[in-house]
Design goal:
- The protein contains 13 helices and 25 strands.
- The chain is an alpha+beta fold and about 600 residues long.
- Strands 1, 2, 3, 4, 5, 10, 14 and 15 form an eight-stranded antiparallel beta sheet that branches. Strands 6-7-8-9-16-13-12-11 form an eight-stranded antiparallel beta sheet, with helices on one face.
C-alpha cells in the first residue's frame, strides 16, 4: 500500500490504539481511523487487516481535512468514539464489533456523526485475508454497497454503494455527512456471509448486550473497573476462554527478539482473572471456571500452559514474512505449549476455590479440584518453567503458589493440607535466603516479583516474616518511580532489559495493603493505573523512562489485576497484632 496515498495506515505508538472486541476476535483502531488488525473468523485465525505488522489490509475512515484526534469509550462498553476536530467542525466515528460475536462471522459497525458542521471524510476498504496474502476477488456492486472475497473469507460492505475500486483492489470513496447527520457503514465478514445486517438492529443489540452485564463496583476506581470488566468480557468467548491479548508479535523491547503471539488462553492468566472476577464479575468467573474445569478434566497432570479458545493445542511458532511492527518481528504461534509449568495447577486451584466461596462451583469443578491436587502430588518435585516461562528449574514460587492453591480449597479437599505443608517446608529448605526472605530458586538467591504474588495468596500465614522480608527487599531493589519489575537482569539497570511489569505493580499494591500500609498501597495502585493510553488499555510492560506501552495489547491479566487491586484496596486492611511494622513499603514518591 502506497503511504503517499494513505499515510493514515502508518503505525502508531501503542498508547494511541483502541480495541474493539466481541468475545470471538478483536480489532485495533488507530487515531487516524485505521482499523489495522482483525483476525477472521476467530482469535487465532489469520488476519484480514494486518498493517499493524507491516502487512496489507486496512479499513480507513478519517476526515478529509486537517484534524487533531481524541476519543473515548462509552462507559462500561467497548463501543469506541473516535473524535476529530477539524478546521471546519467536529467529526465523530462511533465504532464497535457487533456484540456478542458470532464465532463464524464478524460484523464491524462504524457510524459517522457530523457533530459540528458537515463532515467530509475519506474511506478506504482493503480486505486481505491470510495476513495480506490474498487480494480482493469477485468484487461487485450491490444495491446497498459491495461484495467480495479474499481467500476463504467472503464479505459484504453496506453503506457506500458509490465507492469505486482502485487499481490495487481497494474500495475508496469520499463522503460528506451534513451537519447534525449520521451515516452507517456495516462490514460483515466470514466464510459464508450472504449480506450485511441492518445497522440499527446491530447497534441496538450491541448496546443492550453491553449493558446487560454491567458491573457497578463499589471500589476506589469505579470507572476504571467497569472499563477493565468490559475489556475482559470482550476478550472472553461464549465458552469462557479468555485470550491473553488481542495481538501477536508486538515487541516488548525494540529489536530484542521478544515477540510473542498472545491470542491464546493461558491457564495462569485465566485463573488470575477468575480470582479478580470473584469480586463480583460473576459471568467472567463462571466462564473462566468452565474453561479451567474442562481443561483439567481433559488433560489432568498433562495440562498445557496454554490452549486455543476452543481448547485445542496452540500451534508452533512460525514467521509470516512480514516486516513486523517497528522494532518487532512477525511471529505467530507460541512455544509455551511445549513447557511444563507447575504453578498453573496452583493458580487453577486458587481460581476454583474462589468460585466455590462465591457459590458458583458445580460438581465438575469439584472434580477438577481433585485432578489439579493429584497433579501437584505427582509432579511437584519436577523442574518446571515457572510463571515467567524460563528454563526448567525448581522455582520457589511454583511450590509456594501450589501450596496456596491447596490451602484455598480447604473444605473441598481437606486431605491436601499435608501436601501444602510439605511444599512450603521443602521450599523453605532451599528457597530461604540467608537474610530471611524468599529467593527465586535453590541456585538463585535473587528476588522475584512472583514471590510477592505468592505471599498474598496464602501459602503461609499472614504476618509470616519471610513474606514481609521479601516484600521489603523487593520494594527496595526492584521498583522504580512507583513501578515494579519482575526480576533482576545481571549487569543491567532496571528498565534496560525490560519494562516495568504492570501485573506486578498491581499485585504489589495488594501485598502492601495486606501488610497494613494502606496509604502506600493506594499510591502504588494509582501510579500503575496511569500506565495506559487515552483508551485506558494496558499492555504487559511499561517503559518508565519513555512513558510508552510495550508488548501485546490489551493484556488481559493486567486489567484483571486492576479490578482485584481496586476491590482489595477498598476494604480495610485486616488487623493482625502479630504483623510486623510495615516499614519500607513505599518508594512511589
Amino acid at each position: 500500500m502506497a503511504d503517499q496515498e494513505f499515510p493514515e495506515v502508518a503505525p502508531h505508538v501503542l498508547r494511541e490504539y483502541a480495541v474493539l472486541a466481541d468475545g470471538e476476535r478483536a480489532a485495533l483502531v488507530g487515531p487516524r481511523g485505521d482499523v489495522c488488525w482483525l483476525c477472521v473468523p476467530r482469535w487465532h485465525s489469520d488476519a484480514v487487516f494486518s498493517t499493524l505488522l507491516g502487512g496489507a489490509g486496512c479499513y480507513l475512515v478519517a476526515p478529509a481535512e486537517r484534524y487533531v484526534w481524541g476519543g473515548s469509550y462509552e462507559d462500561g462498553t467497548l463501543i469506541w468514539r473516535s473524535r476529530w476536530i477539524t478546521g471546519s467542525g467536529i467529526v465523530e466515528c462511533r465504532e464497535a464489533l457487533a456484540f456478542p460475536g458470532d464465532r463464524n462471522e464478524v460484523v464491524l459497525l462504524r457510524q459517522l456523526v457530523a457533530v459540528d458542521g458537515p463532515a467530509r471524510v475519506r474511506v478506504m476498504l482493503d480486505v486481505r485475508a491470510g495476513f495480506g496474502r490474498h487480494p480482493a476477488a469477485d468484487l461487485h456492486r450491490t444495491e446497498s454497497g459491495w461484495r467480495g472475497a479474499s481467500g476463504s473469507v467472503r464479505w459484504h460492505w453496506a453503506g457506500l454503494p458509490d465507492a469505486r475500486p482502485d487499481g490495487d483492489g481497494r474500495l475508496v470513496a469520499e463522503l460528506t455527512v451534513p451537519a447534525g447527520g449520521r451515516h452507517d457503514l456495516v462490514l460483515a465478514m466470514g466464510e459464508a456471509v450472504t449480506g450485511a445486517p441492518d445497522a440499527t438492529t446491530c447497534w441496538r443489540r450491541t448496546e443492550d448486550a453491553w449493558r446487560s452485564d454491567g458491573l457497578s463496583p463499589n471500589t476506589i476506581a469505579e470507572r476504571d473497573v467497569r472499563h477493565a470488566h468490559a475489556v475482559l468480557r470482550g476478550m472472553s468467548t461464549a465458552d469462557g476462554g479468555m485470550v491473553a491479548a488481542a495481538t501477536a508479535s508486538l515487541p516488548e523491547r525494540a529489536e530484542a527478539g521478544r515477540n510473542y503471539d498472545y491470542r491464546y488462553v493461558w491457564i495462569r492468566d485465566q485463573a488470575m482473572t477468575a480470582q479478580a472476577a470473584a469480586t463480583g464479575a460473576n459471568s467472567l468467573l463462571d466462564g473462566a471456571t468452565r474453561f479451567l474445569t474442562a481443561r483439567l478434566l481433559d488433560h489432568g497432570d498433562q495440562l498445557s500452559p496454554a490452549y486455543t479458545v476452543d481448547g485445542d493445542s496452540v500451534p508452533a511458532q512460525r514467521h509470516l514474512g512480514l516486516p513486523g511492527y517497528p522494532g518487532g518481528s512477525d511471529v505467530v504461534g507460541n512455544r509455551a505449549r511445549q513447557q511444563f509449568q507447575l504453578d498453573v495447577f496452583g493458580e487453577a486451584l486458587l481460581a476454583l476455590g474462589a468460585a466455590e466461596r462465591a457459590g458458583r462451583l458445580d460438581a465438575a469443578g469439584r472434580k477438577a479440584i481433585e485432578v489439579a491436587a493429584e497433579a501437584i502430588e505427582r509432579r511437584w518435585q519436577e523442574p518446571d518453567a515457572g510463571i515467567w516461562e524460563l528454563d526448567p528449574r525448581r522455582w520457589t514460587h511454583s511450590r509456594l503458589i501450589c501450596a496456596a492453591g491447596l490451602r484455598a480449597v480447604r473444605g473441598i479437599g481437606d486431605r491436601w493440607a499435608g501436601l501444602a505443608d510439605a511444599l512450603v517446608t521443602d521450599a523453605a529448605t532451599w528457597g530461604t535466603h540467608p537474610s530471611g526472605r524468599w529467593q527465586r530458586a535453590a541456585d538463585d538467591p535473587t528476588l522475584d516479583a512472583a514471590l510477592v504474588i505468592a505471599g498474598i495468596r496464602g501459602a503461609t500465614p499472614v504476618g509470616d516474616p519471610r513474606d514481609l522480608a521479601t516484600l521489603q527487599a523487593y520494594v527496595a531493589r526492584l521498583t522504580c518511580d512507583g513501578f515494579a519489575f519482575r526480576f533482576e537482569h545481571e549487569g543491567r539497570a532496571l528498565g534496560e532489559a525490560e519494562g516495568a511489569f504492570l501485573l506486578c505493580g498491581f499485585m504489589l499494591a495488594i501485598a502492601v495493603h495486606q501488610h497494613g500500609d494502606t496509604q502506600a498501597a493506594v499510591r502504588w495502585f494509582e501510579r500503575n493505573r496511569t500506565a495506559c493510553g487515552p483508551a485506558g488499555l494496558f499492555s504487559e510492560e511499561y517503559d518508565v523512562a519513555q512513558r510508552q506501552l510495550r508488548g501485546n495489547l490489551p493484556q488481559a491479566f493486567v486489567h484483571g489485576a486492576l479490578m482485584e487491586a481496586a476491590a482489595v484496596l477498598s476494604r480495610p486492611a485486616a488487623a493482625d497484632p502479630l504483623r510486623p511494622d510495615p516499614v519500607g513499603l513505599d518508594t512511589t514518591g
